[in-house]
Fold each of these.
Amino acid sequence: QSKKQVYNFDSSSHHGLLITNKGLELIKENLGTIPLFDKSLAQTKAEIDAIIVEEIEVPIPKDMAGGYTHTQHKKNYDVVQKAGVLFQIYGDEKYATYIKDMFMEYAQMYPKLPLHPETRSYSRGKLFWQCLNDANWLVNMSQGYDAIYDWLSPKDRKFLETKLFKPFALFLSVENPQFFNRIHNHSTWGNAAVGMMGLAMRDNQLVNYALYGLPEDSIDANAVDNDGGLIKKPGQDAGFIANIEEAFSPDGYYTEGPYYQRYAMYPFLAFSVALENTVPELKVLAYKDSVQIKAVYALIDLTDSKGGFFPLNDGQKGMSFYNNALVNSVDIAYHYGSKDPELLAIAEIQNEVTLDDAGLAVALGLKRNEIQPYQKRSVNFTDGPKGNQGGLTILRSKEDSDLELVFKYSAQGNSHGHYDKLSYSIYENGDEVIPDYGLARFVNINSKNGGGYLKENTTWAKQTIAHNTVVQNETSHFNGDFKTGSSFHSQLHFQDLSNDLIQIVSAREHNAYEGTEMLRTVAMLSPKEGMKPIIIDIFKLQSKNANQYDLPFYYKGQLMDYSVDPVSESILKPLGTSNGYQHLWKEASAVTNSDLSKVTWLHNNLFYTLSSKTSVGDSLLFVRQGANDPVFNLRREPGIIIRKSNARDAIFVNIIESHGTYDAVTERAENTESIIDKIDIIQNTGTYTALEITYKDDNSNLLIISNLKADSSEKHSLTLNGTSYSWEGPYYFINR
Amino acid sequence: QSKKQVYNFDSSSHHGLLITNKGLELIKENLGTIPLFDKSLAQTKAEIDAIIVEEIEVPIPKDMAGGYTHTQHKKNYDVVQKAGVLFQIYGDEKYATYIKDMFMEYAQMYPKLPLHPETRSYSRGKLFWQCLNDANWLVNMSQGYDAIYDWLSPKDRKFLETKLFKPFALFLSVENPQFFNRIHNHSTWGNAAVGMMGLAMRDNQLVNYALYGLPEDSIDANAVDNDGGLIKKPGQDAGFIANIEEAFSPDGYYTEGPYYQRYAMYPFLAFSVALENTVPELKVLAYKDSVQIKAVYALIDLTDSKGGFFPLNDGQKGMSFYNNALVNSVDIAYHYGSKDPELLAIAEIQNEVTLDDAGLAVALGLKRNEIQPYQKRSVNFTDGPKGNQGGLTILRSKEDSDLELVFKYSAQGNSHGHYDKLSYSIYENGDEVIPDYGLARFVNINSKNGGGYLKENTTWAKQTIAHNTVVQNETSHFNGDFKTGSSFHSQLHFQDLSNDLIQIVSAREHNAYEGTEMLRTVAMLSPKEGMKPIIIDIFKLQSKNANQYDLPFYYKGQLMDYSVDPVSESILKPLGTSNGYQHLWKEASAVTNSDLSKVTWLHNNLFYTLSSKTSVGDSLLFVRQGANDPVFNLRREPGIIIRKSNARDAIFVNIIESHGTYDAVTERAENTESIIDKIDIIQNTGTYTALEITYKDDNSNLLIISNLKADSSEKHSLTLNGTSYSWEGPYYFINR
Ligand SMILES: [Ca+2]
Ligand SMILES: [Ca+2]
Ligand SMILES: [Ca+2]
Ligand SMILES: [Mg+2]
Ligand SMILES: [Mg+2]
Ligand SMILES: [Mg+2]
Ligand SMILES: [Mg+2]
């Protein structure tokens, strides 16, 4: 374990955890003339002024999340943090006194506190049922302590540090190494809490534990957490720096997805800013090519056009860049980053700033009208600490239309990952079109399993069939085994996001099903200049064995039309018995021929069509979620499954179009029909796949994919139907 | 048939169908300074200027609605109407020339035209498949003709009138009495078309046909239209005046509901305004106590808080006061009514005015900032021409909350009526909470039965089980027989919308099921000052026979919690075989005891609870729409059916609460539980029903309903559990 003694605080006054001395001067200078900061400050002042006249309540810990004692301790740390800000800005001692009184009550109680009575956590806390919440408490309290540090008498400081803060920090670190000494967002919170209190206390030991981990932890090599995740690989580094290293890919992508990244960002940035303000020579924000700042951009880029995070892995839908953690992240990325005027556009939508140096900088930038529109473009993220564990591509349409496709070929995503290799979801105007189910949980809703994960998260939401990707033989990727899934990742084959005619990405997965190679290529292109783009999806499989392949497309809305002839079920039965199939009702099914099979639906007054190039003997299954759901945990959303039976090699070619509109006020329906006339698979070998797509106006596109070689300078030539084509790079596309 | 010769036009210039001469002066005076008028005018000018440079197309009629010739003829009349406006305002002859050229092309074609080739209408048109559309054409063309009348040479006028307009008007009247001489919205269009062209042509014969009907029609007493509606009762008056008389209740309610009223209002008001402008002494808008103006207010009051019409009868959801017909109605009601500043608030939301005297008046009112908020209050509408055929009550919450309940105890509603006696639907913030299914049709969406009514409109949407009201023995009201249903109506028992503590309405239905008397009382009340109100629903049945009673509550959203213990179905079967039951999947069922049965769901991040006072042996059925729906015509929406089996007399007491919130960004859930602790039915006799509702804070309400006597001065006294109560009027309520 490399130990670095970087801290040697002098005893002079400093404030680094909330507002710096320099920031404070600037705030005082500008107060009353910086609308967004003034507004946020007024809100906080009104809120806190109303609270601090009430009696302080520090109850003996008892309840789970949602219960009284849990909520009260949460409220307490929130109030202390905000009162600290107000004390710094206004200098009114009522805030300092309130904070001190609160601290004193905790200092009375803490030394005698046993572990929290609720036993279900792998790391039980004292104030809360899990150390994680205790760490949230300490992060906020460290900020409050920092704010009143100079105001407190040395005697009070000593009392508080001895009775409360140091024991609290040691509890979260040396007494709970399985919580503190991991590469995990829990540990990031633990590290930040201990490190920030260390900075506030000028305690070099705590800061060093936080930055570089505990030198000893004796964690069992097989120990797992409540999610079944391994606590620690032998020999793995721990501490804050190691967590920065391991948490983000070089592009700033967080393997658990944006929902968890949002939660994880706060301790990363709060501690980093505290370090930046107190030990700037550590350059913690510049670490790993400024990956924490990149991560803030990644978070924004991982939102739909209404600001909602794409619900990757166990992400709860509805979480968005309006969350407080994102206000904090955006302000920090602006102030400690490059003062990017595009970030001001996000801050303006958030309509709130943090009450610190960063929030001030944003408010000043907005006041000076330096704002520029935030340009969300198609973007590619690598996954894995080194960026070599697959990734994620977002295709975004240009100009007038607002289509987004999120293609996932990443690593497993830790315990929050889903078996969703090569799956994608589609959004239009920020609304789901081809959704990812998200998670099966109602966070903090007590009646749904106390707000915790539902059984259906495992039996449905994580399963492959819950995603828009191929399922082989009705089993999930890696047989749904977390350990196996965690040891593999998909691979980018190629991508090109800079071609004006077509945006294209291709990725492969060879491990999800042993002996089966999967290559999926997804492209967004406009059939004609100025037209809304369509999505072309080529899913190629090659296997040693004959298999059943199912490719589902979940959709939102109501079926309007289809070219097939479905037989509907008079009694609904589950589609299968396990791996998520038990949760699907089969509503109808249709056999297909070698033509196009089209299905059109209406959602949000927009018409969509899935055009599927099917073969004789394929079938279309019309399914709906909700079977074997005795307590109504699942949404009743529909899907179409394209099934190929007894196939060794197979190719699914699908086109998704957003083509028409309905206006319920004028009752006008426009462009209600798909413009796709034909899809011809001209060639499909191990080496090349060539498609011709013909539109009803007789225009057509030719798309050739190099299935093996992805080098952009590689020369290819191929003769198709007597015409020879030559090109460089992994694909060829023409509009004709 | 009473004939009145009221017209004797002089030959001097007049314009009465679009803009009056006086209006034109005012418009010219104010142009450029009346923002909303200027904007609407600029939009129209831009639209028409782009169209009139194209070649005029007057194709030989061939297509159905949605097809080319249909759409083109529609477009033509729309352009002529707007070009007429532009010619009047700008005086630019290019508009007049365009209109004249268009007229000439029609005049060439019309004399040789046979009936439209499509034969499915009971009144086939010539330009369109039905006379109704031909009448739409003539209304608009009469306005265009009026606009250029003075500009045309007498020779051209004579030619157009002889070849086109008079024959067209006679075709719609004397040649199609079954279309023209009815009490029906088709006839209103026919009357307006013929009358307006009569006014434009100064043709007394046409105007008199329009106002008072054809003197002779020889309509078969058994003739029916395409909806199965009787064409004409023997001896019934016809013509425009009779249609005004019969179409609206004295309160302005239109028995078919707001969706059809919106469509019907245009010809009523267009012709009335034309008459008002040309023959003001007729005072047509003052007719029947200004019922047409009242009808405009009724239309607005029949919208939810987002402006969408409540989907009564065959109403398509999404239709709203943003519709053009409502822009026209609101402007006319403002200008020809009392210049009500509250109407300006609607006009402002519509963000558009008509380009005529009325629209000018509105734009001027808005410019002068005379706008007042439109106050939507609880309101009661009678149904039937004389106001004695039941009615409809809308309960609206006051102050901070935005709950609306629409209780329907009206007449059948003609061929568009549903078997929905004593049903209600509930809205919050303009969104459905307890929805009415609406109609099963996708208007103008070709892939859904050509945009026409779907089979499921009859088999599901009209059936009683599709509504939130009691179904006896799995049969619909009146056995689903239109003729029987049309000969009865429910009856208001009492209502009180002016009590600060409680808003209450009670209505009875004795004919829907022979031998069964139904009395439903619905109240909205706040359990405590400042709290969002709850809805109390008491449905009392008395029957000669033992029956099964089903009371469904359809809801939006997802189940979160319940106090019962449902057994869920591993295979879904339809709940029944007919009368709509065949379209419900039974997902689960629970038996109840004599406690409260509670079901809580989440919708739009709001928590709702249905608390049902059930008896031993009652059951709760958890159902979902969509069984026996082979072409996916139905939405998959859920419902809870409370079933009482083998009961002669029965009482359903239900409370619906909107009590909690969820915030997906902060992940905070608040007030997730119902506050109802107990419902006690203290007394339930033929004479009185007394309820005590106890809340979890031990407050309670006592509500006593007089089941027989509704007189507000009637004195009652009753002893309940040893306490005696005395009061006046049909109900007693205290908060304690
Ligand atoms: Ca082309
Ligand atoms: Ca109780
Ligand atoms: Ca009370
Ligand atoms: Mg996933
Ligand atoms: Mg997923
Ligand atoms: Mg109805
Ligand atoms: Mg209905």
Amino acid sequence: MKIQLINPNTSADMTNTMAISARATALPSTQIIPSTPEHGPKSIECAFDEAIASAALLDLIEQGKQQNVDAHIIACFGDPALDAARELADAPVIGIAEAAFQMASLISYRFGVVTTLSRTLPASEHLLLKYGHQTHCCSVRATDIPVLALENIDNQAYQLLKTECLAAIEQDGAEAIVLGCAGMSNLVNQLSKELPIPIIDGVTAAVKLAESLHQLGLQTSKTGQYGKRISKPFIGRYAHWAS
Amino acid sequence: MKIQLINPNTSADMTNTMAISARATALPSTQIIPSTPEHGPKSIECAFDEAIASAALLDLIEQGKQQNVDAHIIACFGDPALDAARELADAPVIGIAEAAFQMASLISYRFGVVTTLSRTLPASEHLLLKYGHQTHCCSVRATDIPVLALENIDNQAYQLLKTECLAAIEQDGAEAIVLGCAGMSNLVNQLSKELPIPIIDGVTAAVKLAESLHQLGLQTSKTGQYGKRISKPFIGRYAHWAS
Amino acid sequence: MKIQLINPNTSADMTNTMAISARATALPSTQIIPSTPEHGPKSIECAFDEAIASAALLDLIEQGKQQNVDAHIIACFGDPALDAARELADAPVIGIAEAAFQMASLISYRFGVVTTLSRTLPASEHLLLKYGHQTHCCSVRATDIPVLALENIDNQAYQLLKTECLAAIEQDGAEAIVLGCAGMSNLVNQLSKELPIPIIDGVTAAVKLAESLHQLGLQTSKTGQYGKRISKPFIGRYAHWAS
Amino acid sequence: MKIQLINPNTSADMTNTMAISARATALPSTQIIPSTPEHGPKSIECAFDEAIASAALLDLIEQGKQQNVDAHIIACFGDPALDAARELADAPVIGIAEAAFQMASLISYRFGVVTTLSRTLPASEHLLLKYGHQTHCCSVRATDIPVLALENIDNQAYQLLKTECLAAIEQDGAEAIVLGCAGMSNLVNQLSKELPIPIIDGVTAAVKLAESLHQLGLQTSKTGQYGKRISKPFIGRYAHWAS
Amino acid sequence: MKIQLINPNTSADMTNTMAISARATALPSTQIIPSTPEHGPKSIECAFDEAIASAALLDLIEQGKQQNVDAHIIACFGDPALDAARELADAPVIGIAEAAFQMASLISYRFGVVTTLSRTLPASEHLLLKYGHQTHCCSVRATDIPVLALENIDNQAYQLLKTECLAAIEQDGAEAIVLGCAGMSNLVNQLSKELPIPIIDGVTAAVKLAESLHQLGLQTSKTGQYGKRISKPFIGRYAHWAS
Amino acid sequence: MKIQLINPNTSADMTNTMAISARATALPSTQIIPSTPEHGPKSIECAFDEAIASAALLDLIEQGKQQNVDAHIIACFGDPALDAARELADAPVIGIAEAAFQMASLISYRFGVVTTLSRTLPASEHLLLKYGHQTHCCSVRATDIPVLALENIDNQAYQLLKTECLAAIEQDGAEAIVLGCAGMSNLVNQLSKELPIPIIDGVTAAVKLAESLHQLGLQTSKTGQYGKRISKPFIGRYAHWAS
């Protein structure tokens, strides 16, 4: 099967990082197609960045559709434009936050989320509420490491991340940790070795869920909320969507 | 004071309609500055339309900021990009759904929402949940009138709208009705005359809340979730946001 | 328009304080009619005080009705007898807690409440739940300053209040502060100058919402929960309500 | 033990009716002291009636306190002034709605409430939310029988009540029925015979809970929310509360 | 009346302890029939223990049924197999956690739970959610005293228990304490003397509720969720249930 | 990898049916080890059946552990003894209801559940609440087909099932259907062909999630709620658990 792995920010280095993680976990028969937008912010760290990134992300979904991919992954922890992408796509679309929360709730009673900037905490809490996982989450913590600093994470930042994971475990009772940024996917192995509880990365979790849906023959339902978008005029830089 | 009234879709006729409503309700000292994007869909009827409209909407917020407006109104019932706009703006930003729900909860115990397409119902329910008004709302109903058909609404469509309002009252116990589309703002007067309960339009409600915040000297808090966005590279058609 | 500003406790000094705040914020065309009950407690600090104050408060609503006021404000942070007053009145009735929560949720993602006595904390939490604002409130803190001490607040008490506001900001992440007592309305200006986030007073917020509803032509819905009370015998000191 | 059975409305006939029910269920060693206010409405059917009845109800609580009763029951389905009464009293205070909901949840998975007027439905729903029993309640239905008509209920009204009970069972899946008015306590026996599920009356339920708390040696906690009220001036018709 | 008091673990000493408490509180006319299973764990401290204990517990319910008991009490704080027991029994079945939460919510606004092992905390929280009492509970604390150590509790363990009760009061605002283990029922008296707030034991609370239901003539509803189990084949060590 | 597929009821025919489904979906490298208990009910249709089935189910988990399986699936829609099994096992344990809800929420906004007997509806609703999926579920419907009748389902029963699926779609707005019984897993293909929306079976969904967790290297967290059970005496027919 073909999985389009969309990095919604314009940092190609980050796309590479997550593609390495994705390929390491994918089945041999799964082809990972990494995808980086040509328009938008270099990192996504607030609602503004997310709103700007959304339209270019949908262009990538359309590209993936033309390439007949069997699933799309939106690899940014805010799951930007997930509902819109599900309307546009025929194949399933999976957000990495939703994927990680699902895996965490299968192997722990209460999990924690450790993410980048403090200002993204309410966004994580909103996703937990939207998906229904807030009762399973006992801790949402920020490291205040900027997203782009994760690309070449130094030891100081790594220790900061590990410290917050430990605080989630010891102070908040977290039994598993969800890493709250696609850019952390290359740190899972080391953290898993150094911490006494499971560490979950949304990118690899999403790859497995995409494969699962494909093997189950399940596609996004097109009858209700995720039904095909309505044809209408679009102008200006979005005129290509007109129909 | 100056209020920027943003119609997030590209239909200038709809901008005019809502500007007439807004001016009719505004204080004499309030200047309404209508604003229509140059890019995007002619109407917003699903998550896809909303996602595409968001970036151009933020360009308009920036324009309003340059014009030193005292408040911004996002006049689309999905309150698109509201959090992003609050990060970007210095002045308060008000969504018409949030505004209408607030007014409704002051004058009724249980209100109903009557909106356009069935497929937008979950989006309305999500907003009710997000804002905390779901316990005050007893009815969310669709007319399946497309947004653009509201511009020159014929009698048949009007009767359809009225029928759903009556159903909300009689079957669901609604004590007030929130109209679920900015394009319905010119129908408030007639519906108010013909129905036994208050009818609430978000555009005019938002104008009053914008004036209220201004007179109270209240601005969006910039310390937490709505703090200023972080400077970073942007490329492609969003390169103007780079800093 | 005429707004009846009801202080539900019998302290005329407090009525004066809040009338000054209300007039300072009201439009020039708005007449503020302060109203103090002849029966009841000098301050309202628990459910008992609130229950005793309710009947006299409803006498004042009836008085306002006779004077053809266009809106009634109940200026006590517990919003006592709000539902009953809405049944009795024709014009809208606004509680200052509900008003303050609404304004706070328009300009912050998470607000805090700083109030008087610790024993009123559960009452504030109950109002947040009832109105649906509990998800937007991250902090409810008491200063343990008695209500009447607010009339001539000394520096020590002011510092105590400021300290709790700072704790709400720094420890709980509050992005705006709602002052939890009508008697604090004269402290808004000083606190706003000394603290980095918006400070919201329910009295002035309610004045603006009353003006807003009036200008929108909205009245309390009389069809359901707030429908006119049923005529019936009343005896003893409430015989004047018989009909 | 001595239980004060307070009927918060001024209808002595209704007090007698409920006293008969209470005595029929009480232990031989329990003395039921019926209590009717000298001030207030003849029946309680809306928030206005409830607010007016509250102060006189608290006078009765004080009377009961002087008589050293071991528990107070507030026998009106809205549980008026319950929190205030708990602050005032030393002995436990039990509301009949809370009592009935508790008994219902012990013997059924989902119960229904059948009450008097439609306009009281939101009040019942609010109590269910406040006490936490909303998940156990699958049906809240009104008969639109006025409270006073229950005193000498004719066959037509009885059939109406039975019809709504049956609808709650058959349409809503109710496994037990809570009768939503103290004035229905004399109908429990007949309804229990004619309906296939348990029928619960709050008056008798409250008597049993009052006896239970007494035998367990449990009193209202006076350390927090229900701590003693604060001494302060009261004027006018409530001057007797000054201290 | 006859109440079957089931200790779901196989420790006969613990059955004796709780039978002493139960008898001390029961009416003279109430016969307490203690019941200990012949199969299962010596204490119940996790979901595994609870699952193993359930089948033997249901054998005891059947025994009680043969003895025509008027109520069954399941005296383990996890309320194991409560729904199953209600399906099986004709008489009411009461769990001690549900009973204790009900009594606590009648005499306090916010109560705390102090229990045995930390690992049982999520189970307590789940029960609070299931029964709807989570809003009334402000504190769930573990002492990490093993259940069997309660049989001959030494002073050190008692002090530990008292310390957590005090922390619930002082740090969490608990106004009453629910003891989270049937094995603590003999400590209620001493703790009540030494602590300033009511202490509630589920065993005695359940005895009173069982007597209350009996005197009210209320039985478990057999029409819905608790309807009689369906006849079907059972094999192996459960063949005696076949029918 | 080796997946133990546990049918918690004693019907070997049903075990075979679900094993066929499981093998058809599993990867070639996955070995499905079907497992049927020697003790317990032939079908699980109420809380009583579930409680009796739990201990034998845990014996099977222990067997699987001895066989070094890499995951255990509990293939009964009530997810019986799931928490207990997670405490006992080292490998992940997946319940088919949780698995099906997760898959449904990835491909639909609102899904429906169509199950066997009406009396199991509250159990399904409880699971939705426990797992946090209640906001995504718009419909829970029963067919009143007994579980064992599914083994050789005739056309009449199949039509009944299809009718309820259609009602969920048309009346309740379901965008996907979760089949509420492991015994329905062989009907997925036919229903998927005849209905316009995705049909989800928990058995196959659980197989894919088990494979996913294995490939991600994730195991049940043993630090908190699912930590190893505490050694203690067990007697009678459970003496083999003593340690």
Amino acid sequence: MARPDMPVNVAEKLSKVTEYWSPKTILEANGYEMKAVKVKGEFVWHDHPEGDELFIVVKGELTIDLRDRQSVTLGAGDMFVVPRGVQHRPVAPEECEVLIMDAAGVVNTGGVASELTAQDEWI
Amino acid sequence: MARPDMPVNVAEKLSKVTEYWSPKTILEANGYEMKAVKVKGEFVWHDHPEGDELFIVVKGELTIDLRDRQSVTLGAGDMFVVPRGVQHRPVAPEECEVLIMDAAGVVNTGGVASELTAQDEWI
């Protein structure tokens, strides 16, 4: 899909996300894609050798476990960058709405094949 | 400044911004910087040949006039990408809080020297 030439509303896009752990692309800039995702529960440990991954929590609370350092917990309005290649595992006890930005084509589970591996899809 | 290894809270960062049109960097990912800025009034026409520029409105309303196409107006929770090289002019009749993401080192007024040209600064 081409980049939208109209403003994109985050809440409106998130309202269309019906599955957990299934990020949907909402815009693209400089080869990086912003994705809207709802999460609940525990994701798989993985990393992204292609680049850093930006998390922005819109609603709820997200903990990101990091293999080699202290976990971080993000509330609404918090942002965090998981550096390139750092093993991480997002965990959300309750439903949480998140924006994720990473390089176009990055797979949500990194190099880990999982039933949680999602297809690249615009919403 | 090094990239923070703790979550960054958008509202907290914006509360530290005291000047209009003076974006402050709050995080970096893949060589792109997220900046918090308060705006009011009319900015200068300019463009960024280095890359696309992502706008995210946190509070208030921002119109982005575009030289070669229809203006867009963003409310809270709206995002928009001004493509690389497209002349644009942000306008906000009332105070508006915005996040802007573009390549590290990009100057807010592009190639236009202006009293509104800001220094690259972390907050």
Amino acid sequence: GDAALGRKKASACQTCHGMDGLSKLPEAPNLAGQVEPYLVKALSEYRDGKRQNEIMNVVAKELSDADIANLAAYYAGIQIDVLPPG
Amino acid sequence: GDAALGRKKASACQTCHGMDGLSKLPEAPNLAGQVEPYLVKALSEYRDGKRQNEIMNVVAKELSDADIANLAAYYAGIQIDVLPPG
């Protein structure tokens, strides 16, 4: 997907997921640096109802395949560093 | 949950998710620093079949509530830094 286009689309996601991909709500997962094909799969499953979430089923319904690919590219592209566990 | 106990339990997760919570497979999401209640919800849904995944439905079936709480605490407790998007 196209991360730049995804970034524009992400304005619809930022309330819960942030533009930086860090969750703003306890129910919302972090998306920053997440695995791109996993994001595509999750979004597709929210769109077709295989995955249930009141908000995401509504939000995802509007998304095209291109939107999903672009959003996945945007959030997956956010760099994260993991500090090795203690 | 108890992250130290979760860390022991995570040996069952490391093949796909890593002990560091960074995905080792395209299908497996990163877990490092993920939102703790989100991890509890996801694991519980894999356990009771609300969320479908061949591997996770089998793996999660064995987990007790305490295991789920401890695993969530372990992976959520791994520190991540997000480099602000460009």
